[in-house]
Amino acid sequence: MGSQFRYWSFMPVVAMAMIIVLSLSHSSVVSGAFYSQIEVTLVNILEPGKILHVHCKSRDDDLGDHYIPYSQSWYWSFYDNLFDTTLFWCKMDWNKTGGPMVSGSFEIYHARRDLYRCGSDVSGE
């Protein structure tokens, strides 16, 4: 009976430690100690006069609507979480010349795909 008592009295400590580890795994301060900063730049190279509308977000951050004029860019940066599960996706649209609106949704950054494969350049070039 003595060993069972010690086991159950230890469980709250284990539970609290797990909560702290899970909380810190999503902290950019803690992640920044292990990973370098990830930088993402979107560039509008559609055609002169075309404005690219983008709305990017992750599970934790909604970066809002941005309108990028032709030949201009929009930039943001972040740190991956400790479990390499960071994912940003963007919805993009623009009006096609003489035609309908073109739109799509893309995974712009997926840590498990991009962090080690691309290093500091995730441009796909």
Automatic annotation (TrEMBL):
Keywords: Secreted, Self-incompatibility, Signal. Pfam families: Self-incomp_S1 (PF05938). Residues 1-32 form the signal peptide. GO terms for biological process: rejection of self pollen. InterPro entries: Self-incomp_S1. The keyword Signal applies. GO terms for cellular component: extracellular region. Its main location: secreted. It is found in: Secreted. It comes from the Eukaryota. PANTHER family: PTHR31232, S-PROTEIN HOMOLOG. Belongs to the plant self-incompatibility (S1) protein family. This is S-protein homolog.
